[in-house]
User: Fold this.
Amino acid sequence: MMRNILLIGGSSGIGLAAKNLLESQGNKVIATSRSTFEATNPQATLSIPESLDGLVYCPGTINLKPFHRLTDQEFLTDWEVNFLGATRALRLALPSLKKAPSASVVLFSTVAVKCGMPMHASIASAKGAVEGLTRSLAAEWAPKIRVNAIAPSLTETPLAAGILADDKRREAAAERHPLKMIGQAEHSAELVSYLLSDASRFTTGQILRPDGGLSSLRLF
Assistant:
C-alpha cells in the first residue's frame, strides 16, 4: 500500500537512505532538506497531501566540545536544529496526520542520550529533549498517531566524516562497539521503514537503538 510521507532532511546520510528505501517500496515521499525547510515558508513551498501517513524528521548535528568551551549560541544552534526544527515540522504536518486512518511519526535521537559521553553535552541535551517530546506526543496523540524515535550510534554519513577521517579513527570507532562495526545509514533507514509500516502498529513511545550494542552491553 502506498503511503504519503513527509521527510525532512532527505538530501544525505540517513535521510537520503530512508528516502530511497521508502520510494523503492512504492511510497510517495515529499522530501526536503532542513535548510530549505527552515529558509522558506513550508506551507507555501511544500505540496503536502491532505492526508499524510508519516512524518520523518532526520536533521542532526555533531558538535563535540568540552563543556567549558561551549557557548550559549552553540547550545542554541543544537537545540534549533534537533529539537525546535522537529516541533515546527510536527506542527506543520499535524492537520494532515490527523486525517490519515493511522499515521506514524519518526524522530531521531542519539546513543549519547542514554550513554554519558564526554564532549557531548550540547547534542545529548538537545536529543534528550527529542526523546521527551517523543514520549509526550505518543501519549497525547494516541491512538491515531504513533510517535517513535531512533537513537543510532556513530553512523557513516557526511555529518560524521570528520570523526571517521582515516583508517585509524574508523578502527577505533568500530572497536568501541560490541559488534565491532560502524553503523551504516541503511541500518537506520530500515528502522524508519519499519516504524512507518503496519508491522509496527503496536509500537509507540519507543526509542529504538541501532547502536551496535553500545548502550546496553559491556564486554569484559
